[in-house]
Amino acid sequence: MTSQALAAEEALAAALALDRSRAAALEIAQRAVTSAERVSPAPGSETDRAIRHRAEAYRVLGTVYAAFGEWKDACVAAERAVSAWRQLANAGSTMLVQTEADQAERLLLEASAHLP
Length: 116
What we know:
Elements: H1 3-18, H2 22-38, H3 45-67, H4 71-91, H5 98-113
Helix pairs in contact: 1-2, 1-3, 2-3, 3-4, 3-5, 4-5
């Protein structure tokens, strides 16, 4: 899947969540995660690009779960997103997008706050 296609799926999932279309939003967000997980990049920055796509896809999935109050699943997805962003940060990658990493961190904090 291309970067543009992944971004389009993520945007569509977010829009559907805002529209309260749970099943469609989750299906698209989960498809984006599946696509991001399947990327087998070449060594170098392509590896970082794959990690970035995975981070973005998990953040979107977590955001969709959060939109429907499914905090446990939102927390799991946010943890995966944060983990991927931290992997990029620790490697000093140019693929790190700090604002998106911060969004994932905030999502994790929010989701965690709703758990017992």
